[in-house]
């Protein structure tokens, strides 16, 4: 495991081991963030609960959710989390290679639909100022239901927190997973 803290070599108890089992890449490798947070049951439980809410407990479709997640992770330079989401969810979300790359591009890629561009702008505004401007809010309200807006805020802010944890812990993208493109302008 790369990063500033090792994951517990073997979680202290059987219950924690069972809690960590679902948090693996398709090839069976454990997800580093969950492994490291197992040092604190409170931190692990918080991440598990919030991740479940964002991935299973919301009405947003996978495409909407993943554009928001990938953009906020890219803006925060959280390559490890960005790579995990590309690997595990981009195909399910119907995101093509150009769209995945565009989540890391500066500005709003001209290939986004107007609806998708709102997601990029939302992630950018939250990343840059921890708020949403009145103008963007009005555009979101024209396109999304109140429930969808609340869920978008949940997803973007949760994954900003995940990005901060990933970066602070010094976690690196697992070997063989995509890397944030740095050749975009």
Description:
By secondary structure, this protein is an all-alpha fold. It is 59% helix and 0% strand. The chain has helices spanning 14-20, 32-37, 41-55, 62-75, 79-90, 97-102, 114-129, 134-143, 146-168. Helix 4 runs antiparallel to helix 5, helix 4 runs parallel beside helix 9 and helix 7 (114-129) crosses helix 9 (146-168).
Provide the fold topology.
Elements: H1 14-20, H2 32-37, H3 41-55, H4 62-75, H5 79-90, H6 97-102, H7 114-129, H8 134-143, H9 146-168
Helix pairs in contact: 3-9, 4-5, 4-7, 4-9, 7-8, 7-9
Helix percentage: 55-70%
Number of contiguous helices: 9
Q: Calculate Rg over CA atoms.
A: 16 Å
Mean pLDDT across all amino acids: 93
Number of strands: 0
What does the overall shape look like? globular
What's the story with the biggest beta sheet?
Answer: none
Cα-to-Cα separation, first versus last residue: 32 Å
Secondary-structure-based class equals mainly alpha
Share in β-strands: under 5%
> H/E element string?
HHHHHHHHH
Q: What ranges have pLDDT less than 50 throughout 5 or more consecutive residues?
A: none
């Amino acid at each position: 495991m790369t990063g500033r803290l090792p994951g517990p070599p073997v979680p202290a108890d059987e219950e924690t081991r069972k809690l960590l089992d679902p948090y693996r890449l398709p090839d069976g490798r454990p997800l580093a963030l969950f492994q490291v947070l197992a040092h604190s049951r409170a931190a692990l439980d918080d991440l598990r609960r919030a991740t479940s809410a964002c991935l299973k407990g919301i009405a947003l479709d996978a495409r909407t959710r993943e554009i928001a997640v990938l953009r906020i992770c890219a803006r925060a330079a959280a390559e490890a989390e960005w790579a995990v989401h590309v690997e595990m969810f981009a195909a399910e979300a119907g995101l093509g290679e150009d769209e995945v790359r565009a989540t890391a591009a500066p500005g709003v890629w001209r290939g986004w639909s107007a609806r998708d561009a709102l997601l990029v702008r939302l992630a950018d505004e939250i990343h840059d100022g921890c708020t949403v401007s009145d103008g963007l809010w009005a555009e979101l309200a024209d396109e999304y239901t109140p429930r969808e807006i609340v869920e978008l805020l949940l997803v973007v802010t949760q994954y900003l927190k995940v990005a901060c944890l990933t970066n602070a812990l010094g976690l690196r993208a697992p070997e063989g997973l995509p890397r944030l493109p740095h050749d975009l302008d």
